[in-house]
Fold these 4 entries.
Entry 1:
Amino acid sequence: MNERQAARMRMRGMLRKEFLQILRDPSSIAIAFVMPLFLLFLFGYGISLDAKHVPLGIVIEGSSPEAASFAASFEHSDYFIPHTYRTVQEAEAAVVRQEIKGLVWLRSDFEENLLSQNVAPIGVMLNGVDANTARIVQGYVQSVWNTWNQQRSEWDGSEFSMPVGLEQRVWYNPEMRSRNYLIPGLIAVIMTLIGALLTALVVAREWERGTMEALMVTPVTAKEILLGKLLPYFALGMGGLVLSVMMAVFLFGVPLRGSLLPLFLCSALFLVAALGMGLSISSTVRNQFVAGQIAIVATFLPAFMLSGFIFDINSMPGPIRLLTHLIAARYYVAILQTLFLAGDVWRVVLANSLALLVFCAFFLIIARRRTVKRLE
């Protein structure tokens, strides 16, 4: 038997050992398949950046058909749950008690000004503690006001005119569903956790149990050990990716406008980088608990906060924006959101794939240098 045949036999033995270890260890299956299910259900159904069913106070000081008609416009909107108050003081107290998010104030001369001058200012007060929600609610109120004005003109047979004509067109996410934006980014977070936790916890567990020391005295080389750890968990991670993509498309209705081939190739690059990071962590600390904590702090939190998954990178301070370039998930999130919502935009996909390739090589080199056949 020559050296090449012996190397193939050792490699097959390593792969068989790792796959048997995966089948015997339910935590690996849970990380690869149960965790994506949990996170996708949590974020897909429990977290939304859309503002719907917002409690809003309506103050009508004078009873009039025009004021009642305008107030009814809020009742027919999916975005508001209107609460009627007699005075603005009562509505302001409700805002302080956080019973409503804001109020719309129709003064006693609302109808008189509307009929005589065709101009009737309304008062809008919003709770600005949550600035993002306040801006969204402000836009919704403006939309209700414009729609009511247009309907009123149609009822009267008069011409509705505004000083500025706005023709709105939303690209890539015309429904403006936050779920379409969140789910692709969540897949990046899931792949980060799968790659880092699988190798960090499993390899560190082998160091704790002493099986890694037993492996060191065999003829298996350090390169074969590294590949034997990498390939089985790569297959497991790609299985988790397939599950996540299928749930995103068929369960949550997120459009997939790009091709599957670049999606899986870019995901493979990112997964290898995450696996290399996990191997580097476990080879350094060799303690299961510490490896898990480091993996979460070094991979999950940056992927969640600094990748553009939820928070816009361009809105971050300059030093933090520079820091995001050291986060591999930043480039993967950009690829996923482009492939899901815009399609095969090769300028974005290729540029970010090149960055992932650099991360891949970096972490694999570190993992290779840390994987040596000696006890330290």
Entry 2:
Amino acid sequence: MVSDRTANDRAATVKRETSETAVAASINLDGSGRSEVATGIPFFDHMLAQLGRHSSFDLHVTASGDLAVDTHHTVEDVGIALGESFAQAAGAKAGMRRFASLALPLDEALVEVALDLSGRPYLAWGISFPVDIPGIGEPPFYPQLAEEFFRAFVTAAKITVHVWAERWSNPHHVLEASFKALARCLHDATKVEGDMVPSTKGVL
């Protein structure tokens, strides 16, 4: 994995290459919500674009992977690279709010997200899908892959995230609501309100 953090901005780029995928992910926490995303998985691209727009981060993500085998490897490795770029861009998190939570509706779906820029990776995932639920788009993004993306992102970003759905019936809606809610919480938690690291330990 190759990384590059921009010295004067809260921005970073990470390149990750394995025998299964090649991913480049750039993030700017002080952006304007512009996204350029190309992973070869159209529905996943749509979700990542929602993440960029509603966080007001600038995202640039490109990925090539073994999609003929499965979409899982690409989704997971994008999560790792994007999470690592977030961690680098956030740096010491000096002055950041650190905590955020939100209940977000999308038609019949209602999703809640709570997060902490804790330095301790933990995902609590509370959205269950039937084992035989069909994928969305072509190549398919299976709804269960959302948990894999969130876990990879959270682990690499070293943050704590809780996600749960109060209600839903349309898988597209509950997935989109979860990405939008994560985005808004990241936007709120990374706002700078001072210059101190938001921890009595002095480090996150």
Entry 3:
Amino acid sequence: MGVMIDGRYQVEEPAPRTDAAGRYQRARSTLRHWITTGGGPGPTGDGGFVAESGRYHLFVSWSCPWAHRALLARVVLGLEDAITVSFAEPRRDEQGWIYSKSGEFSDPLLGIRALHQVYSRGAAAYTGRVTVPVLWDKKTETIVNNESADIVRMLCQAFAAPGGPDLYPAAHRDEIDGWNERIYANVNNGVYRAGFARTQEAYDEAVAQVFENLEAIDAHLAARDWLAGETFTEADLRLFPTLARFDVAYHYAFKCNLKRLTDFPNLWPYARRIYHMPGIAGTVRFDICKRGYFSKSELRNPLGIVPAGPVVDWPPV
């Protein structure tokens, strides 16, 4: 998968970014405009993006955990009719995320065959990785945002319905922010730091932090249903994509194998409780996730062989 340089796609993919000690360094998202109720500027970027039903579109992939965040927010907030979606094919090639001519993995909006065409069309001078999710404005044919955390937050705040779910309640914002920071650094990105480590020391450090934090979260959930407050919040939403991929992908492909999700007495029923919330199971494709993480990779899986297991069974709690 290549990169964009000054709005032009380059097929050559750079090696994963690492520091001098072999630790994986994730690139930051840079397209960060916001949708607001009145169209004014948000915390970053330009204004002009008003919350209007039918105006915006998401480009996502079933296998990507960051895209999964956006899909979860769309479902939990009841925005399926307000925001349309295109799903990339389960595989990537030299063109990066790609789309079929027709069917489930086609793009009904722009008819593009590769995601980099969205970037070149909606961010003419963009330099960086071609990632999902992408939030697209149909009216101005512009990329609004490609940072999943921003997309979740703006959907919650700009499209919130009176009396509807509040993923970022004022009374628990400090607690949610604390969980978000911890979960991102040590769990969401932690599994990637383990999987993309280029030295034994970097891997040992990353995998230890992943399981230290999973154990702490498991203990926290021993006496409560949710991470912050008494309802499902943004903190739970941001943890779930990693849990959904843990046993089918990270345990094996990223060598995060000290325990499986099913071995945690509180995290396992917690994950299943989220999975069986209305609409959530429809955002999870275990088969595609496994195929994606075991796709051919010189560093992780040079032969591209996808394992038969594990058998996936997430029964109700």
Entry 4:
Amino acid sequence: MKKILSIILMTFFVIGCSESFLDTENLTKKDSQSFPQKSSDAAQVLTAAYKVLVVNNNPRHSILLVSEAMSDDRLGAGGLDDRFIRAIANYKKDEENMYLEPWRKYYNGVNRANFLLSSIDQVAWDNDEQKNRTAGEAHFLRAYFYFDLARMFGTVPLILDPVPQNNPKASPEELFGQIALDLKTAIELIPAVKYQNIDKNTLGHATKWAAEALLARAFLFYTGYYNKAGITMADGTELTKAQVVGYVDDCVANSGHGLVSDFRNLWLYTASPDYSYTKDNSLSWVDENDNQETIFSIKHASTNGQGRNLDVLFFGLRYQEPSDYTNCFPFGQGWGCVTVNRTTFEQWPDNDLRKKASILDVDDPSEQIAYFDDGDHQMEDTHLFQKKYIPINVNKDDGSGIQGYWAKRYNMGPDYASENYQDKVVIRYADLLLMGAELGSANAQVYLDQVRNRVNSPIRFPDFP
């Protein structure tokens, strides 16, 4: 009896004292009442939101990998254990909640953007421009996360503050109304700094130009998929095609972005100077840290493997012999997923420069590759692989063999699974020009011709009126 009474009294004591006990100042962790307070605190929150873009520890995290596998241009491929990628390619489930991880990833990003926006006025900013730029980037990221969610899942719950809640799915009008408003807000808040004047230490951050380009992409997706003429934004105002064309034209005229002179120099294989295709065509990679064509990209960097670009690994050649991959130089080791559909390859005109620049045909004698068939049970092996995002090897300086490009650049030890750090380009200037043409800019024919003439495209289109 005394023991029971003791427990009751102790329970009463804890309950009675819990309010004052729990309300004591948190001396070990930051919380929303004390953080962020300084501009440096806000920068940490913004960085955490950007980090969500880089998280790619699961192939289902990547909208690029999933959408490529689902497209008619690609097959699932991979090895015996890569059933999930073939399930994705065939629109089937390989497990319950197979896309739970990207759902969590993107809502994690939404929550971080919401937290920053809800705290923006409590920060002691150094100046108004700093505050506006940070808020603009947070609006851009929230729109980016929701746009990817919309493309992966259709309509999803719309959450605009960091308070836990269980909202029903938003309508397409509500969801894209918020995406459009966030991007329009980002355009208005982020300073208009030409690409040539941007601090290279901030590459990978959203710019006014990235917001204009992403708004055009979201507008085309929404109006095309849902057969709408415009977007009613979350504040009740209308976003028209004419306004979006104005944003595209502004980006073309004032951003400082432009086309790289040779389309092939956009891709990492041209960083391997001893690759026959690079030598024969006098190609030279435009380093991703100095590429005027990139309007927005997801930056990857060597951070103990955590910053790797996992998509590149999936697209690489599967288990070749000999294992040092000298037989397929400069293309390196990967998991052989998402091979190119041979029908796509055969229907693409041979005299289009982009065909050989974009697709690796291991049977092409000019590639000088001795391809090893059925490497570790390679499935759906068409002998065709995309060349834009694929592990690339280079010769070692001392002539002792080959190594991964990024292993050499970052002075890393060999680890094929963790040494791919190529940036993932989300929007290029060429994309912007084509969107401007599709939207019906007064400069539509000029925009289209710039893209077409760069590659001497044999595919002709009727002139725009």
